Queue: 4 jobs
Job 1
Amino acid sequence: MTSIEELSDWIKNGKQRAIIAKTMIYPMTGTEILRATLPYNPSILLGDIWWNIKQFTEKGLVECMNPSDITGRLYTKTIIGRRVLYEAFKIEIQPPSEKVDWQRFAQVVRAKTRMTVFMEIACNNYFNKSIKTASNIRRLLKKREVPIALNTTIRSIKELSDINLIQCIGYADKYDSKIYQTTDAGHQIYQELRNRVQNNSSKKS
């Protein structure tokens, strides 16, 4: 069996391996890992990410949280992976939260528009109290220079409703437009995503 020290040296001796290991501090998709590593290695490609994830997995450092999904697979460090990360770089990370449904989390983050619509609905509970109908969601996103067609917004709402991350809580205006907010499962996913945004912001400041 390879020791923690040997695995630590193996990671540190590979430039790409080291960058990926240090940026992969919570469950991430391959695309998210690429996005996180690009500032440190602008020449890295998605194929490089997959190759390194395959090596990490074979050595027991990383595991897939939703292997039955064809797309949007989430990868997280194992107990050994977390120990190796600390041994190599003195970076301590916590195991994935048991409160988050990671299968549904992956369905949110793997689609940019779906995630954008989800975050707009979810933030209603915390930062603004505007009524979140499909047309209002589209209007609010447009104000932030994130133009999304109404049909696309409605499709994302349906997808999020189908996996029980948002729910209709009433109706607004003369057209009886549905008002949406997050479910308990959606709230936990929003908290995870919000914490990531805050952590990334604090790193940059």
Job 2
Amino acid sequence: MKTHMMNRLTVPCDSVQAPEIENTDIETVDTAQSAAEELIEILDNTVECEPEKAENGTKEGRLVLFVCTGNTCRSPMAQALFNHKYASDGRYAESCGLFATGAPVSANAEKALEEYGIKGFSHMSRSVSAELMRRAELVVGLTGRHASQLIMSYPQFASKITAMPADISDPYGGTLEDYRRCLAEIDAGLADAFPAAGGNSHKDESEGDSGDTAR
């Protein structure tokens, strides 16, 4: 994969008009290679919105928003892992779900993250919203179907929506081993999607987790 130089124009978010989407193809993010290339192209070529000011008057960073189904397993783990290894240049991650109910992150997700070296992570699930979509620099579905649903629900933000390079399997209701495998899938996907970051912001403290399964 080529290394891209980023030339960005910072403008107020309200002045950015997303292109109209016609006949969205649900298969556009099916392959690992095309999804990874799409994500890098978005990072390189989209207009960067001026960060919003937080309540304390300081500006927020560049938000990468991970989205899964219930926001209790996959997307919170992606959020935690991204912030642990890939956050840099003001970029940081949050997460939400297509159908979140306000439940806490799965206990097995917390345990898998702890084993990886990410301790004390806590999260309450929340649903995706237009405000979150507007704030995000990049929106990453944990599967192609998540990304397609986001495009259909928020066509005005289609230019910033993509998917992980390969679908992340759902560990919901599974064993701790299922969550370990899921976390390893996410780790591999982030390494492919954000090669420039290289995972060098933080030391990788995992020791041989592996990756695959079912939310």
Job 3
Amino acid sequence: MTKNNWASFNKAIKIIGYIAIASLFIITTFYYPQLPDTIPIHFNIKGEPDGFGSKNTIWVMPFIALGCFLLINFLNKSPHLLNIPVKITEENKEYQYRLISKSILVFNCITTIFLFYINLSIIKFVLGESVGMGTFSVIIYLVSIILGMAYYFYLSFNEKKLKK
């Protein structure tokens, strides 16, 4: 992948993340007045609510998502601070730093979209538009993170083979 392709990909992922963050705040702001004073804040393995809180807790998810997104974007600018599973040398430094940068931006974007989904699911449940939060979405999220990490490790440890 050329430098321009890496940069374009990273920029596209960041834009998707920013759109997800903005959408999270917009949706929450739009539906907030319609929410009852008490809303579910936790769901059991069956997707049924088993914890409740003030409707103000609906704002926790957007701010957690924003904080994590900004922190990871900040850390992404200093890849040498990250724990990379291969020894960094002058020969592999550029490739490894680009790879970890790309990977954490993708994970960040996936997590932001998942947090958006959780907040939207809570809102839809409270408004009677859904019966709860399904476990399938959590499984999809976990599988995507695990497969993404496996792919990152594969690329990271097989750099020389992939360059041939």
Job 4
Amino acid sequence: MKEQAEKLKQLIAMGSKYFHQTGEESLCRKPAPEKWSKKEILGHLIDSAINNLQRFTEIQFAPKPYQIQSYRQVELVKANNYQSASARDLTILWQAVNRRIQQVILMQTELTLAFPIILGNGDSADLAFLIRDYVDHLDHHLLQIFNPLYPTDPRLPAPKLLA
């Protein structure tokens, strides 16, 4: 899992640099009225980080297999009104929660990484899968934020920022 922690560290650095260098107007621009702005995607990443930090820590003491509880992503973005929030404040929060997740990842052992989980669709997995999935999810959404043309062709596989 050290590779996942290092990848997360790199994604935090890349995202932080982008958010600090990008103007508020650009972050607030919506590609379509029903689509999220880059700032709202950042808000979604904050919600994802908060929910996954809770999962990564609760699984340490919860009955096994750990049942993944889904959360209402669209409603959370709307309820938190990320579009009107300060990009600086959102960036600081996003960085802080992800740095904590990075530390939690580094604390895992072979035993804890094998803790069984039940995903929302009923499939079985383990904590290691959940951690990899979180980092891949972050990679995917940062790519959307960085590239205004993404995805250029929906038939192509989604590229990753970091292999």
